[in-house]
Design brief:
Blueprint (H helix, E strand, L loop, with lengths): L2 H12 L4 E3 L2 E7 L2 E15 L2 E12 L4 E11 L4 E12 L1 H7 L10 E11 L4 E15 L9 E16 L6 E9 L2 E9 L7 E12 H6 L3 H4 L6 E3 L1 E11 L7 E7 L4 E4 L2 H11 L5 E2 L6 E2 L14 H11 L11 H14 L9 H10 L7 H16 L2 H11 L1 E3 L2 E2 L1 H9 L8 H9 L4 H10 L4 H16 L33
Antiparallel strand pairs: 1-3, 2-3, 3-4, 4-5, 5-6, 6-7, 7-8, 8-9, 9-10, 10-11, 11-12, 12-14, 13-16, 14-15, 17-18, 19-20
């Protein structure tokens, strides 16, 4: 709002005559519904160049629902400032949200309570608010997040302080304490000036509190098959996300806290049996696209201790160098994925650790929705606490895909090199580990019996990393030049591995 516009508004308000209404009522019948408006007080008082507006009203529905409004406004043309004390209860907001943000698919029924002080200051081009707000029964339809509608979202914000620029630029800040069910978070959002592109700085802090509250903040539609998970204990965390569209490399992610006190009591009926079978080393995983069976309960399972050290080492240097140092999540990898997503201006798959990939492959379907990443995080947390690191790496090597219809390192070693995984040499191992981002690319090179120059350079890099980390002796990598693996050739009439893709 410009200075002249607010001057005109406050001047007109100051020129209003003194009015007082001590009691008023109105009955309205519209759209098949009867509404009753009760106005116990409404007044306009002008004095010393300023106008004070005071209003109290209650809107009642025939079914008993009530919406209350309390408004005290002071408009001062001399200071170009408008201040208001506002209190609204059970204000219907679904229609307004649907109009402003139609992509959210907001259904009817959402209500808003607001209690606070509002100030408009066009001289400084600033609007501020201090107070509290509560949202009840908000619904959303976000198919990229989850196919099913999200219903019944309720939360409150207290000790809110917010400001937004009135000059048309996306600049402002807000902070306050957010309560969702039994969980409490202190949230701070900053949108500073950053050229012509938006810049977002978001910080969330959860002080020590029951871990069950953290999980309960997520709607069941988002949790999906893990909605019945139960956790106990206490934990705390803080997170900061900086998104800079003008300079994507400046985007960053900071995570801290202590969730070691959080205890997983159960994942729910869909997953508890799988997790127990994994613990007992009797689990058999069925890949639906090929019918292949892998896992510790199958004959193709190879213990990590039977494999050459560089096999597990190659998985680490290509996928998750800090696997043994983190608790399932790599902040560095997630931050790198964030920067790529900001640069591409869309959600970008990435940042997954070995544990996250394993949780995804063992427990989740292939539907690519954002909610899947959160489910993956909960499942990663679960397997990290139930299964040891060596066993997780063993599972990973024995379960992941190495080509169309080729799962598990034993099947892969026999398919590509006609040998058991325990007999793989470093170059053959490097080839198998290089398959993971796009297994079918490597498979096509096996078909041609020759790897590309780019692929050979990558195999050389993997071998060099194995040397650096001590998984193979020094000067070993160069002995495999020109880095062309000796592939098994298909037998006459041999068909490609079975796959439904």
């Amino acid at each position: 709002m410009s200075v002249p516009a607010l001057q005109a508004l406050t001047s007109r308000a100051a020129a209003l005559p003194t009015l007082r209404l001590t009691r008023g009522a109105l009955a309205v019948h519209a759209s098949g519904e009867s509404l009753f408006l009760d106005v116990p007080e409404a007044s306009s008082v002008s004095a010393n160049g300023a106008a004070t507006l005071r209003l109290r009203a209650t809107l009642s529905h025939a079914d008993g629902r009530r919406h209350e409004l309390a408004l005290d406004t002071v408009a001062n043309p001399a200071e170009h400032v408008l201040t208001a004390r506002v209190r609204l209860t059970r204000l219907p907001v679904s229609a307004a949200l649907a109009a402003v943000l139609p992509s959210l698919g907001v259904p009817t029924g959402a209500e808003l309570d607001v209690d606070g002080n509002l100030m408009l200051d066009p001289v400084r081009q600033l609007a501020t608010f201090a107070g509290s707000a509560t949202v009840r029964d908000l619904g959303l339809s976000l198919r990229r997040l989850v196919p099913e509608p999200i219903r019944g979202l309720s939360f409150s914000a207290t000790e809110v302080v917010a400001a937004v620029s009135l000059d048309g630029s996306p600049t402002g800040f807000a902070e306050g304490t957010i309560a969702v069910n039994d969980a409490r978070f202190h949230l701070r959002v900053l949108v500073p000036r950053s050229g012509e592109s938006p810049h977002l700085d978001l910080t969330a802090v959860a002080d020590p509190q029951p871990c069950a509250g953290f999980l309960a903040t997520v709607p069941d539609a988002v949790l999906g098959p893990i909605a019945e998970a139960e956790v106990s204990g206490r934990g705390q965390f803080s997170a900061r996300v900086v998104v800079d569209f003008a300079n994507p490399p400046a985007s960053r992610l900071e995570l801290d806290g202590d969730l070691t006190g959080c205890i997983l009591d159960r994942l729910g009926p869909e997953f508890d049996g799988k997790l127990q079978a994994l613990s007992d080393r009797t689990y058999v995983h069925h890949w639906s696209d090929s019918g292949v069976r892998v896992g510790p309960g199958t004959s193709t399972w190879v213990p990590l201790s039977d494999l050459p050290p560089y096999v597990g080492g190659a998985a680490l240097v290509t996928e998750d160098a800090r696997f043994y140092d983190h608790g399932g999540f790599s902040v560095t990898a997630l931050e790198r994925s964030l920067r790529e997503a900001v640069s591409l201006r869309r959600f970008h798959q990435g940042g997954s650790t070995i544990s996250m990939q394993l949780a995804k492959n063992l427990f989740l379907d292939r539907k690519k929705v954002l909610a899947r990443k959160l489910r993956e995080a909960v499942l990663t947390w679960a397997i990290e606490r139930r299964l040891g690191k060596d066993y997780l790496l063993e599972l990973y090597l024995n379960i992941i895909e190495y080509g169309p219809g080729i799962y598990g390192i034993e099947n892969a070693a026999r398919f590509y090199f006609d040998k058991s995984a325990v007999g793989l040499d470093p170059l053959e191992t490097a080839f198998l580990m290089a398959l993971k981002p796009q297994p079918r690319w490597g498979y096509r090179q096996w078909q041609k019996n020759e790897v590309t120059a780019k692929w050979r350079a990558y195999l050389e890099l993997i071998l060099s990393r194995l040397e650096e980390k001590g998984f193979i002796p020094a000067l070993t990598a160069e002995t495999f030049a020109p880095y062309q693996p000796a592939f098994r050739r298909p037998a006459p009439g041999e068909r490609a591995p079975k796959t439904k893709r």
